[in-house]
Design brief:
The complex is a heterodimer of chains A (273) and B (360). Chain A is mainly alpha-helical. Chain A has two domains: 35 residues; 202 residues, MetI-like fold, CATH 1.10.3720. Chain A has 14 helices and no strands. The termini of chain A are far apart. Chain B is α+β, with helices and mostly antiparallel strands and 360 residues long. In chain B, helix 2 packs across helix 3, helix 2 runs parallel beside helix 4 and helix 3 packs across helix 4. Chain B has two domains: 220 residues, Rossmann fold (3-Layer(aba) Sandwich), CATH 3.40.50.300; 112 residues, Beta Barrel (OB fold (Dihydrolipoamide Acetyltransferase, E2P)), CATH 2.40.50.140. The chains are: A mainly alpha (273), B alpha+beta (360). At the A-B interface, helix 9, helix 10 and helix 14 of A face strand 6, helix 2 and helix 4 of B.
Chain lengths: 273, 360
């Protein structure tokens, strides 16, 4: 018997095509169905009237609840991103630099939310939010605390994959030996090198927050998803159109994550040559 | 010296006094004492885990010491944070900031010191010229070879005009040819600038080639410090003799300061008492060049059989099996071509450099 076993070898061109086609079809069918549905005319045939209605000048009044939900979701997305960047990112950097033994503990803590169903989380959060409402009011942004927990696993993974690829210990030691204080080390050295992970965490956070329904619904808050459900009861076409737009937005965000690093690398090469 | 980042020699005196460093239950430094003169180039040499990098990190401030004092120009710096110690450091792993170009990397230390932009640019360009990389100022680290990256790291460490330069195995990741080139370049630059330099390496050839003095470390302490010649010709201990240069371990009998091996009585260059033995059977450490290949008929010679012979460029090293089965290496001229299995003889032409206990 000669030759090495091909364990771990990349799939062939045909296998890749088949896999991508199957995955593509699984994703494409519901989206195509939604587009088809949004173009249906109740009298038969197809029309763009539903789409035109969404973009008409009176849409903000007609679908006020959706726009309110969208506004709330955007506020929540921004506040959740801030929570992630202000709390999770510095904690991860600190653990990497100063307390590497705590890395496993932090990972465990950050991954836990993915194992807890949203409904269970809400049961636990309900009494907490009654206290939060008394202390900080029941403004929509307070929901960001719960969302901060929900997005922890995704944000953690995005940042950690970047953190593992950069020798932040040596870089920070080099910067310190050159006279930099901890603030400069973090701002001028570590953060620029974690740019990709940080942006990915932020974009994933935005995508998750825009798609969240259970927590907002059970805590009686209005966000994009709860508003869409509400609108769908009276106008299912508009609900589907807004869902498609939200999907498109999330898709663009994910595309941006993939593009950022390669764009930077390409730009650097051009600049150097 | 307008083309260098220094206008005057910047060497500082460095002194480590009874420095102790513990990592949990492991004592990494067991009371290190070291004195480095201004402008001196000292290499810390030793096997992995002997504490040489810990000495460097303690001196730089990257590690806090548990006891002892570290003086730079007479000032105790044990409580001074790393970013205030005014020390330049080049790391073993490539430590260039990947998001900055070469020149931006070099400028970083000056930026931290709030040097005006114009002066910063001039000094960074001079530093890059000093290491021969002025033409690669706009390159990022991933666009440079390993040797080029370490040159930029050297320029970055030098541009701030530090009082002490610390080099933590900066050549270990480079290929052999680049290592030698950069090693010589580091020595040239250090001599030009007169900067006090500590250079950590586990490569004895590297240490002997560049350093004014070499400190051989073992198990958290300095076993011996001296010039390369002193270490090679008069090692204080068998460990130093074995670690610095090649040594043959030959059975002998010690009596005071004299040693008898294979019928010849010789003096010992190092101090036999350092091995803790005054008399009795020992192993004598004999350099390969102190054994001479001779014809079998030479009186007082030791019969041997050739095991293998290696061509090393300017010399040849041949391994021999003595009659009692002891294997020794002999260094000789390349014009001699001993063949494996050939019967030859060797004669001692120099004193053993040290002795060690029979089980050592």
């Amino acid at each position: 018997m000669s030759g090495n076993p091909t364990v771990g070898a990349a799939p062939g061109r045909l296998a890749r095509t088949v896999i991508l086609s199957v995955v593509g079809i699984v994703f494409a069918i519901p989206i195509i169905a939604m587009v088809e549905f949004s173009l249906r005319n109740l009298a038969g045939g197809y029309t763009i009237a539903h789409w035109a209605g969404v973009f008409s000048p009176t849409a903000t009044v007609t679908y006020a609840i959706v726009f309110t939900g969208l506004g709330n979701s955007l506020v929540l997305a921004v506040v959740t991103v801030i929570i992630i960047l202000v709390i999770l990112l510095p904690t991860m950097v600190l653990v990497q630099l100063q307390f590497p033994r705590l890395r496993r503990v932090l990972e465990f803590v950050c991954i836990i939310p993915i194992t807890v169903p949203a409904i269970v989380m809400v049961v636990g959060l309900a009494p907490v939010y009654s206290v939060v409402a008394r202390l900080a009011g029941s403004s929509i942004w307070t929901l960001a605390f719960a969302y901060g927990i929900t997005v922890l696993p995704y944000a953690y993974r995005a940042i950690q994959s970047n953190l593992s690829a950069v020798d932040v210990v040596t870089l920070s030691e080099a910067a310190r030996s050159l006279g930099a204080g901890w603030g400069s080390v973090l701002w001028r050295i570590i953060l620029p090198n974690l740019r990709r992970g940080t942006l990915a965490a932020a974009f994933i956070t935005v995508a998750v927050v825009l798609g969240e329904f259970t927590i907002a619904s059970l805590l009686n808050r209005v966000n994009l998803q709860t508003a869409l459900v509400q609108v769908s009861r009276s106008d299912p076409f508009v609900a589907v159109i807004f869902s498609l737009l939200a999907l498109l937005f999330a898709f663009v965000l994910l595309l941006l994550i993939g593009r950022l690093a390669s764009d930077r690398r390409t730009r650097d090469h051009r600049k150097a040559s | 010296m307008t083309s260098t980042p220094h206008s005057t020699p910047a060497g500082a005196a460095v002194e480590l006094i009874d420095v102790v460093k513990d990592y949990a239950a492991h004592r990494a430094l067991t009371g290190v004492n070291l004195s480095v003169r201004p402008g001196e180039f000292v290499a810390l040499l030793g096997p992995s885990g002997c504490g040489k990098t810990t000495v460097l990190r303690a001196l730089s401030g990257l590690e806090r010491v548990d006891a002892g004092n570290i003086l730079i120009d007479g000032v105790n710096v044990v409580d001074v944070p790393v970013n205030k110690r005014d020390i330049g450091m080049v790391f073993q792993s490539y430590s260039l900031f990947p998001h900055l170009t070469s020149v931006e990397n070099v400028e970083f230390g000056l930026r931290m010191r709030k040097i005006p932009t114009a002066a910063r640019r001039t000094r960074a360009a001079e530093a890059l010229d000093l290491v021969g990389l002025g033409h690669l100022a706009g390159r990022y680290s991933h666009q440079l070879s390993g040797g080029q990256q370490q040159r930029v790291a050297l320029a970055r460490a030098l541009v701030t005009r530090p009082r002490v330069l610390l080099l933590d195995e900066p050549l270990s990741a480079l290929d052999a040819k680049v290592r030698v080139q950069l090693r010589d370049e580091i020595r040239r630059i250090q001599t030009d600038l007169g900067i006090t330099t500590l250079f950590v390496t586990h490569d004895q050839e590297e240490a002997l080639a560049v350093a004014d003095r070499v400190a051989v470390m073992r198990e958290g302490n300095i076993e011996q410090i001296g010039t390369p010649e002193e270490l090679y010709t008069a090692p204080a201990t068998a460990f130093v003799a074995a670690f610095v240069g090649l040594s043959n371990r030959m059975p002998a009998t010690l009596s005071g300061a004299q040693v008898t091996l294979y019928g010849q009585t010789l003096g010992v260059l190092g101090s036999p008492s350092a091995a803790g033995i005054l008399t009795g059977p020992v192993l004598a450490l004999v350099r390969p060049e102190d054994l001479l290949l001779v014809s079998s008929a030479t009186p007082g010679s030791i019969a041997a059989t050739v095991v293998a012979s290696s061509f090393l460029g300017s010399l040849r090293r041949t391994q021999l099996a003595l009659a009692d089965g002891i294997l020794v290496s002999v260094q000789h001229d390349v014009s001699e071509h001993p063949q494996p299995g050939e019967s030859v003889a060797v004669r001692l032409r120099g004193n053993p450099v040290a002795v060690s206990s029979i089980d050592g």
